[in-house]
Protein 1
Amino acid sequence: MESLILEIREAVKKLFEEDKVDLVIGFEEGSLPLKATPCFIRSAEDADRLTWNSMCENNLAVYVPGKKERVGVIAKGCDSRSLVGHIQEMQIKRENLVVIGVPCSGMVDRKKLKDHFGDKEILSVEEGPDEILFKGDGFEESLKRIDLLNDSCTACMHRNPVIHDILIGQEVQEQEGVDEFEVIKGFEAKSSDERWAYFSKQSEKCIR
C-alpha cells in the first residue's frame, strides 16, 4: 500500500506542477484507524495528505457533477463507471476531467469488523496482500481480506478502472464466473413474510 500511496501523491503533484488540474478529489486518513475520508486537494504541497487503503469505500464520482474547473479524481473500477455516466449525461466535460485510476481488490466492510471484534477498540491496521492485521489494547489479530470485503466487492467484475488517464500500480485480475445477481436471487427465494421482515428492519433506521 505504501508504494501505491507514494505513486498517487507523485502523480497528483505532477498534475499541479504541469498545470493540468485545478482540483484533485481523493482520500486522506480519517480520525479513526478504520476510516478514510474524501478530501479536496488544490496544490502540489497538499498532495502529501493523500492516502490509499482498503477503507477508501466512498465513490468519489459523486463530487464531480457541476464542476466547471479541471478536476482530477482518484477512481476505483466502480468510481470510473460512475464517471462514464456523468460524462454521458453531460454532468462534466471529458476534457475537464483527469481520471487517476487505481485497481481495486475490494473494500473492507466495517460492519463485518464490528461483528467480529464487538466493542474492542482497533487502534492500528496493517495491510498485507491477503491478510489484514488489526491491533488494539491487549489484542492483535490477522484476518483474511476476502472474509472482510463488502458483499458488492465480492461480486465486482470491474476491479480495474474502465477509463483512466493515469494508472496507479498494476492492473489486478478481474473476477470470472461471478453471478452478480446472486443476492437478488436469494432475496427472490424468500417468502413474503421474510421479505416484509427484511424491509421492516431496514426502515427502522429511518428518523422521519
Note: The chain is about 30% helix and 20% strand.
Protein 2
Amino acid sequence: MLTNIYYSEAEAAEIARLFEIDEIESVVDFRERGNINQHTFLVSTGSADSPKCYLLQRINQLVFTKPENVMEAMLACINAQNSGLSTHPMPENEPWEAIELIPTRTGEPYLKHNDHHGITYWRLMVLIANCHTYKSLSEIPSREQQLKIAEQAGRGLALYLKLTESMDTTNLASPLPGYRDTNLYFNQFKSVIRNHRTPEEVKYLLPEDPEVLQSTEFHFYVALPEEEYRARIEDSEVNEFIELAIREQDYAMILARHMELGNIRKVAIHGDTKLDNFLFCNDTGLSKAMVDLDTIMPQTWLADWGDMVRSLVNVAGEKEEDLSKVTVDTEVYDAVLTGFLRA
C-alpha cells in the first residue's frame, strides 16, 4: 500500500504532459483542494491572452483503495449528466456544467502512472470557469445571501439527481467498502462500547464480505489504554449520546431496512453533498456544477438530501469548536427545501 507521498510542482508538470493538452505554461499547487485528494495542481496552457486552465489530481489510494472503481463511476456520472443535458437542455441563463476529463496521450480517460513512488492514479479536468465555492455558510456575512446560497444548493442537488437518474447501479461498486452501511456502523459502535480488543471478541460483529472486512475491521477494536478508555466511556456527557444511539437504533435503520426490502429504490448518489462540493456562478449566483465525484455509489437519494441538510443547517460549519454556535437553522432548512422542490 502507498504511504503518504509528496509530488512537487515539477513532477506534476511531467505527469500533466502525459495528457492531451497544449504546451504547459505553469503548474502550481491548487489551494482550494479538498480534504482527501491532497495532490491537486492548477495547470495552465496557452498564451496570457488566451489561457486554458486544468486541475491535475492524484486519487488518494490510502482512502480509495480501488481507484479504478472511483474513475469508472465518475465517468458514468459525467456521461449521464451530458446525456441528460443533451436531452433536456438547461435555459441559457441557468447553466449547468458536468466535469470534463482530458484523456491521456494514449487515449485513456485517466492515467495509471508508475514511477519511483509506485503505481499512482491521476486525472486531468477542465477547470470550470467563472465560479466559486464556500466551506460553510458562516463565510457569508449577509443573511439574505446565506439563504440564497442554501436555496441554490438545494436546486443544484435536485438538478444533479435528475441528470444522473439514468445511471445503471447494477455493476456500480462502492468506492469505499462499508461507507454508509448503517448496520456496520452500529456493529462497530457496539464493539467499542463493549471494550472489544481481540479478534475473538469482535468476530461475531464483523462483516462477512471480505472486501468490507478488509476496509473496516480495524474500526471494531479499542486501541486506547484502559484508563483513558474508562474515562471516556464513563463521562456523563458522552454517556448521554451513547444511550441515545442505543435507544434510537431501530429508527436509524429505517432507510437501510426499506432499501433491503426493495421499498426504497437505489440510485447512483453523489455521496458527499457538503457545501464546498457545489460550484456557484460568479455572475448569477446560481448553482452551476457538482464536483468531487469520488463517492458515487448505489444508495437512496434521501442519503444525499440528508447529508446536504445536515451540513447546511449547521451554519457554524463542521469544524466549529464552540458548541454553543452549533444549532439547527430552520430558515436555512426551508431555503434548501424550496430550491430542491422548485427544481
Note: The mean pLDDT is 92.
Protein 3
Amino acid sequence: MLLELHILQNFAPSNLNRDDTGSPKTCEFGGYRRARISSQAIKRAIRREFDISNLVPEEQRAIRSKRFVEKIADGLASRGRPAELCAGVAEAGLALLDIALAKDQKTEYLLYLGAAEVDRIVAFCEAQWETLAASAAEKKAAKKGGQDDDAKKLAKELKSALDGGRAADLALFGRMLADLPERNIDAACQVAHAISTHQVSSEFDYYTAVDDLKPGDTAGADMIGTVEFNSACYYRYANIDLGQLTRNLGGDAALAADTVRAFLVASRDAIPTGKQNSFAARNAPSFIMTVVRPSGAWSLANAFVCPVRPSGEGIIAKSITALDRHWGELTTTYGAPAGASLALIATGDAELPNLAAARVATFNDLLERTVAAAAGGS
C-alpha cells in the first residue's frame, strides 16, 4: 500500500531555501521559472518537527552527525567510566565498524543512527571496556577492525546492533553507510522538490543598519546590504511505501501507524528555516490531500505545467482549482485508483467538482481517516 501526500502552501515574501549564492532556489518547469524548495530542506524540516513538537519519542528518533565519538564518549562517562579514556574507547568501537575517522575525532561523513543504535554501541563499548581501552592505548583504534579472530567476533556483534533501532525518521528516509553497505536502509518515503504553481521572479531587499552609539551629528548608515527573496504558492508531494515502512520498523504495525501520524502532522507544520528571522514566513498550507492506494503513484505537479496566473480569484484558489481539474483528467483517462481512500481539506470555498467527495471538515478528520486507511492496508 502507498500513502500519497499533496500540499499547496502559499508563502509570504521569504528566502526559505538558498543556493550557493544566497539566492532562493529556483528551477524551470513547463518552460517557466519557478520557485523551488529542495526535498532535502523539506525532509530536514520534518525531522526537526519530530523533535520540536515531540511527535515521536526520543528513543524512536535518529541522529545525523559526524560527532559520534563525542556522543558515545559522553554516554560512557555518564555510566561512570573515566572521562579521559572514553573518547579513545569510542574511537576503538567505531574502528571495529570500519568507520573512518578524521584527525579531529569526527567521522569522515555524516552518520545516521537511531538513538537505540547509539545506546547499543555505548553498551557494547562499556561491556568490552578493557579490550577497547587496551586497543586505544596501543593506538590500534585508527586501524580497520577485524585483524584477528577475536576482533572479527567483536565486529560482528557490534554490527548486528545496527538495525535502524526502530527509529521513525530513519525508517522513513533511509540511510546509506559507505563503510557498511550491508547496514543500509531503503527509504520508505519519497519527497519531491516543492515547486511554485506559477511563474516567479525574485526581488531584492536593500537594508541598512545604524550604530546605536553613533553621535547624533553623524549621518549615514554603518552597514548596508541586500537580501534576495520571492513569494510563491508551492505544490508539495511525498509518498510512503507502507509495507517498506513496517519492515524498516521491525514489523511493528502499531509503530508504523504512529510514524504515519507523526509524518502527516510534521508535514503540515514543517517549514524550512532559511532567513526566517528576516521574513517570518510562517504560512499554513491552504490545501492538504492524502491518497491511500494499493499501488501506483501520481504526482500532480503537471497540474501546473501551464503556470497559474494571478487574478481576482487569487493564486491559492486558482491553484486548488488547477489541481482538482488535473485529478479529473487523470481519473478520466486512467480510471479512479482502485481501492483508494482519499481525504482532503482546503481553505476558502474553492469548488472541487472532481474531489468534493473526499473533502472533510478539519485536519484531525483527515488525519484519522488517513491513518485508519494506512493501518488497514499496510
Note: The two ends are 6 Å apart (CA to CA).
